[in-house]
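Researcher: Dear colleague, please comment on this protein.
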Amino acid sequence: MPRHEFRPGRAVAGLVLLALAGGYAADAAGAWRVPWTFVLPLFLGGLWLAATVTWVSYRMRRRRDMRNASAERTSAPASSSGSQAMR
């Protein structure tokens, strides 16, 4: 059993920020010249992508939970299933 729920939006945001940090590190080392105008659109685009992934995963979780809840509601209640242990 996993200890916590996987959050794909946070994973996307983390990967984007790691890519930006790698770009800054390469620029600081002199291996790659990164124009500052490149960083802002990449950052904002990464945040938008992370928000979109979070929204999609939220909707999928809600749909799955609603489907599971409706399946539980259609089953017979415990009192009518023949169990005499309930009072």
Notes: The chain has a mean pLDDT of 83. Residues 4 and 10 are 13 Å apart (CA to CA). Helices lie at 8-29, 36-74.
